[in-house]
Amino acid sequence: MEDKLQELVVELLGDGAMEYFIGYRQGFEPSHVVPCFVTDKSEADRLIWGPLCLQNLSKYVLQARDLDGKVGLLVKGCDARAIVELVKQHQIERDKIVVVGVPCEGQVDPRKMEQVLGVSMEQVTDVEDAGDEFLVKVGGEVSKLGKEQVLRDKCFYCKHPTSFDYDYTLGEVQPFTIDSESEEYDAVEKLEELPLEERRAYWLKQFERCIRCNACREVCYGCYCKECIFDRTDPRWLDRTPLPRENEIYHLIRAVHLAGRCIDCGECERVCPVNIPLGRLYKKLQKDIAELFDYEAGMEYDTVPPLVDFELDDQDPFL
Ligand code: SF4
Ligand code: SF4
Ligand code: SF4
Q1: Which pLDDT score is estimated for 199?
Q2: Which atom of ligand 1 is nearest to the CA of 154?
Q3: What are the helix (H) ranges across 72-195?
Q4: Strand partners, 138
Q5: Tens digit of pLDDT for each residue in 63-72?
Q6: CA quadruple 191, 195, 196, 199: dihedral positive or negative?
Q7: Is 89 exposed, middle or buried (0-12, 13-18, 19+ CB in 10 A)?
Q8: Which of 6, 42, 110, 172 is 20 to 30 A from 202, alpha carbon to alpha carbon?
Q9: Distance 159 CA to ligand 3 centre (A)
Q10: Distance separating alpha carbons of residues 99 and 88, to the nearest angstrom
Q11: What pTM, to 2 d.p., does this model score?
């Protein structure tokens, strides 16, 4: 797969079909993968693909807005939905992007892997996808881990392992089986069963731990406003100090802004340094939007996210 990717990037850069390509490369240690920007075909051999290519790279295509040419991008099926939304939301033109779809068979959750193995990710020197399991190398020893033990939560219910819209694809997905009795919305439904006050108390307790580092905002494809409401000082909508009350407002505002636009990439939860279960919050939004509007973000170009659309006869008794 890597050879195929590197050959394609060499070809596309050589033909002038794009100005640069965004993919993944090895980071400062074997288990650490980082985004890679390839501007010259001689650098294409740095590109890699595997179960640790976690980042949703879609937000980087916004840089192409000011380019004369195109930018190429490697996308997993879940992340590709962000491209669809960015085009629909008029943030980028589709013909500015060369989409290279990669068949994805699940990504590792490093926190789960550390727990299962009892070692830090720094000690993991290789993770190989072997169908229904991962082969994980630690200090020369190879362990077999069932995917159900260490997959990212979103991968358990992966509905879109490849993009429906791509210019090139690196292959077909090989189906893998997950030995799990849980259902996609189990965690959300468990919270929904609680009385309103207990639900609120649950989230307030989570938000109390937030240090307002803004990582969840920075990583989210949907947070592309040139001036974010949280950064404004005149008027100042939110105090910079991470007090519980201010944190609650921060998370509620972000949640409302992402309702109908969240594509379930899981990046906000992945980057949170204090492990706030943001995925659960955004899963609740996806569930409500699906039930109320029969809408799933990122699946079509010709539908508008429900909360950025209106009909002249919409009811608005509160106005
Ligand atoms: S949700 Fe699907 S496409 Fe996305 S990382 Fe998981 S398996 Fe891959
Ligand atoms: S990443 Fe976590 S700690 Fe940082 S602002 Fe978001 S929720 Fe708060
Ligand atoms: S809110 Fe989180 S899961 Fe949803 S699109 Fe943004 S980063 Fe991805």
Answers
A1: 94
A2: 1
A3: 77-88, 110-117, 147-150, 153-156, 186-192
A4: 124, 141
A5: 888 888 899 9
A6: negative
A7: middle
A8: 110
A9: 16
A10: 16
A11: 0.90
